[in-house]
Amino acid sequence: MKKILVAEDNDSNFILMTYILKKYYAYDRAKNGKEAVELTDVNTYDLVLMDIKMPVMDGLEATKAIKEKHPDLPVIALTANAFDSDRQLAMQAGCVDFLSKPVSSDLCIKTIRKYLEE
Ligand SMILES: [Mg+2]
User: Fold this and answer.
1) 49 phi/psi in degrees, rounded to 5
2) Which of 14, 57, 64, 85 could form a disulfide with 33 if both were Cys (CB 3.0 to 4.6 A apart)?
3) pTM score, two decimals?
């Protein structure tokens, strides 16, 4: 089973995400960007779902740090803001794609599958 790191500070958003993922993927949780960077240093993941707004270190900064060390690890941004400027910032930070919250289960799985060889 492929393993996904879910970086999400909000408990309810994380629980919703686990309902979407649990049938198809193993997952770990990071509660902020710093934890996400640390977890990708010690574990191997196939993909990262990265909330942008998080305490300690936000998702943009965390994505830049992760991509420096793991250029091939796909990072998909998750955010409540669906503005073009947010999408652009996420892409500039190194995200391969962008999901707006609330994310539908189908779109989430479809988007993840684009970046995992299955
Ligand atoms: Mg957040």
Assistant:
1) -100, 120
2) 57
3) 0.95
